[in-house]
Amino acid sequence: MAEPGNEERAKEPRTVPTISDVARHAGVSPMTVSRVLSGGQHVSATMRRKVETSVRALGYRRNENARSLRPGHRSGLVGVVVTNLANPYYAEVLEGIGEILSEANRRVVFGTSHEDPEEEARLIADFVGRQTEGLIVVPAGGPSEHLRPEQRHGVPLVFASRRQDGVDVDAVIVDDVRGAERVTALLLEEGHRRIAFVGNAVSVFTGQRRYEGFERAHAAAGVPVLPELVRRGQQDIHSAETAARELLALDEPPTAIFGANNRNMVGAIKALHAASAARGTDLFARVRLASFDTFDLEELVPGDLSVVTHDARELGRTAAELLLVRLQGKRPDRPTRTIELPTSIRTRRRSEERLPGTEPAQEPAQAASP
Amino acid sequence: MAEPGNEERAKEPRTVPTISDVARHAGVSPMTVSRVLSGGQHVSATMRRKVETSVRALGYRRNENARSLRPGHRSGLVGVVVTNLANPYYAEVLEGIGEILSEANRRVVFGTSHEDPEEEARLIADFVGRQTEGLIVVPAGGPSEHLRPEQRHGVPLVFASRRQDGVDVDAVIVDDVRGAERVTALLLEEGHRRIAFVGNAVSVFTGQRRYEGFERAHAAAGVPVLPELVRRGQQDIHSAETAARELLALDEPPTAIFGANNRNMVGAIKALHAASAARGTDLFARVRLASFDTFDLEELVPGDLSVVTHDARELGRTAAELLLVRLQGKRPDRPTRTIELPTSIRTRRRSEERLPGTEPAQEPAQAASP
């Protein structure tokens, strides 16, 4: 099958096509080629297609890196750091970011911090060294020295999903506190007095805020939070499953579990399923569930489930838009701002299984607060 | 909250720290700094930490782009194109790629083709223009002109998950044919004669190969494939759900469904769940399921389910390793090769629900074929 050496042949020195070659091939002016290549607005679709075909036919490429070093030119790269790509939530965020940035002719250089601030610092230093024009970061929490403007050499930074104390940059976050508060209040109204909290590390912005909402709802209802039912620090499904298994083994187990993100909820569901099988009893009938964020196949959960939702892709889009405003430098003196996206809650009860095609009841989305 | 202008201050001209500054700050030689920064092997962990701390304290950055333009230096960027990041499978592949590349001091520039060959071509042209050293691509299928060595300017390319006819490069794929064949044979042995196939587009490498395995098992058993039960072309959960809903509405519905990837299986499960609710009957007891690839919460599926699994992260790692061999140019004349990763099958039956902690039976992994 292989014809060895194919790969190598292309490396031999040969004439590199220029913009003029492309223009001649496409039958347009070099200026038009240049305009298409720089993603200019005032080019017809037909023209663009012609030029793109010729670019491909001739194998023409701009030297983007060389361009970025000339004054007034930009690398076109945006560095994005998420904490955990195994969570489909971040895949959605990333899709939203990519959608807006590619419209603006930018590409994403990508890294995962795995919730480790040191890895985050390494990634950011690396991205800045690669002349990225901007950064979008889901901060892991913890030390934030590497996020200071001097450390970034002034490269604009936008936070997505989380914010970090002491770092004053644009951010898009979710209304975590109220989302968690409202869903906890719902469980309390149903009469639950032993509600477990399974969530990620105390140092994580969203973990902190969702716990705050959980506490607020308890305080408002005059019900104490029970420390033995609070498990914080699970960053993946596996550790969440372990935490939930321990909760279910308590002498007095919880009657409800709030999973403060989808990884924690999925882990808790796996633990409930396994414990049900082991004991030969249906624990889903006894433990009411509530989740912050959706997950695949949530309709298969054989018990009552409330889900706090928001639009992850929109969050990504908004983060990219905030960054582009800074990159275009239209209002360099604009104070930083935080956009908080609203959540909504949907509840599915086994007793009232719905027919397909009818949507589960949804509370009205809250207005975005500035 | 905001102290406006914070972002701007950092842009003022100031002295840029040099390697010597870092060396002085860390109390090591400039050579050591240089060695740490280039990811050299012969540096102790202590030394590395010292240098990294000083780099961060001073805000030193190498100009990676400038380096890449000097002869003999490399950009350190690898372009990665996947077809659909909403599928957690590709998130796993990407994690594997990132793991190996970051050890080798390379970063990933990332894009999603959304199964569109034209978008794939645009991404690759863009990456090549940005001086990426190498490319790892999950090809969307369809036209492949843009994948030819001349179009890539000889930038090494590795295929992951799929291969593309007529493009002779290194590839890591899964033993799709045998995986699909074995799981279909299992259903046929159980007596199923109306097995539906729900999978992605005919033009997609894996869709093609898994269908081939499905057909082979039928041929071996002397059972005809029923065209009305074959639905190819679903690339996401939503379209798969629609296809499965149609199958379940047939006068003579299938007694088993093979989902040729996890998006198709999840869609089919959603359709089964909805149809069960609508008809007030448990269709999971009547329709046997088999899936190529795992998905979250598969244990909640209330019916018999077989899953063909393989290690997606390992697939990503292997793709990155193949690319690094080419980048290091150790054996430039080595013929291209395709590594086929083995699959295994696990089956969970509702009638024999297992206790937690005991693993479901797993067939032995097949040996990798070259």
From TrEMBL, chains A, B:
InterPro entries: HTH_LacI, Lambda_DNA-bd_dom_sf, Peripla_BP/Lac1_sug-bd_dom, Peripla_BP_I. Pfam families: LacI, Peripla_BP_1. Residues 333-370 are annotated as: Disordered. Keywords: DNA-binding, Transcription, Transcription regulation. Residues 17-71 form the HTH lacI-type domain. It comes from the Bacteria. Residues 359-370 have a biased composition (Low complexity). This is LacI family transcriptional regulator. The lineage of its organism: Bacteria, Bacillati, Actinomycetota, Actinomycetes, Micrococcales.
